[in-house]
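Dear colleagues,

As part of the handover before I leave the project, I'm documenting each prediction I ran so the next person doesn't have to rerun anything. This entry is a single chain, and its sequence is reproduced below.
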Amino acid sequence: MRIVVKFLGHKQVCRSKRNSHRVRMAAAALANSLGNKWHSHTYKSVFGRSPSKRIKNFSAKREKMVQCARRLIPSSYETRGGRYKACQSSNGCSVRGVLPKNDSEYGSNCQTSDLLSTEFEAAKQLYLRKMKPSIDQLKKLPVITAGQADNPKWIYKRMETFSSTRFHSICVCRPATSSARLAKEIVTGKQMYCDWQMNHGVDCEPIAFACFESKKGQVVQRSNDFGLFADKERWWLVTSPDGICDSGLVEVKTITNIQADKTIKEAAQENLVSGFFLRWDPVESRLLLKREHKYYYQIQGELNIVGKETCFLIAFLDVNDFEIVAVQRDTEFWKKCCQNWTTGSKTENWALYGENFSYFRYTTTDRL
């Protein structure tokens, strides 16, 4: 009932206050995803240039104000007569105590279902059975999600599953580390935020494809013709490669952190860039993709899910400086990675997360 009251109150506030509540909700979502300087990040993402000095000063002032307010709030709280008692901070100011973590109206507890545990478990299992796709649906998935980021179905399905861009974070998760926080971050879709580097990559992708076609003599099938590919055994593992050619997959990675007077090959040979994804092999005299880099996990996931043997990684700096690195499918490497899907940290299980991570949607959305 509490969720229904909040929903109706939101509608009434938006009707009487010219969508003020909706605007505050959008601002809160941006602040949660981008931090206290979300004004500057949003301006740069929308307009493609650095914000004005006035916006930067406002963002810095806002961040400083929030940090100061958080420092004033004491870690302990006291209540009197159902109200929070004012506490004294270090500078003598009177500050309200923080909300308790186990408060029934705030935090994760506010989404607790009012159903009986048996009814909730039955409803959850029914929802999960409906969510699990059939073999025909898995085959049609690349067609119905064609266009990728321009297709709303692609965005929705990607948020419902684990994308190959996150495989490295999951596979290197240590046994002593709780995977619940990482699973929540993946499901809530924070990785969908587009910064200037992602926008630069989108702009350079057609140019990189043209350079690849000119050098290799193969036509690349673009993302407009396909969308998500799902693993046959683990339907919640998906991938969406940048392109597909006759010889395999094509993945484009733009480079923005190399000095102006250096080339991609020189950067790999001299280790000029920290965390660079390419290395120079002096024995074979060619560039290779580092096995410990997150791009290697992503590409191996793409190859094993789509069922191709080779992925052509295009390291693109500009038209005059780009490198094509062939990455072969490593079945043994993928089998070792898949162990993390079935043996999670502590008593947690990544396979269980993959099959049950969306149950919270039933409690927050589907019941309204």
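The CA atoms of residues 344 and 350 lie 5 Å apart. Residues 74-103, 343-368 have pLDDT under 50 and may be disordered.

All the best with the project,
I.
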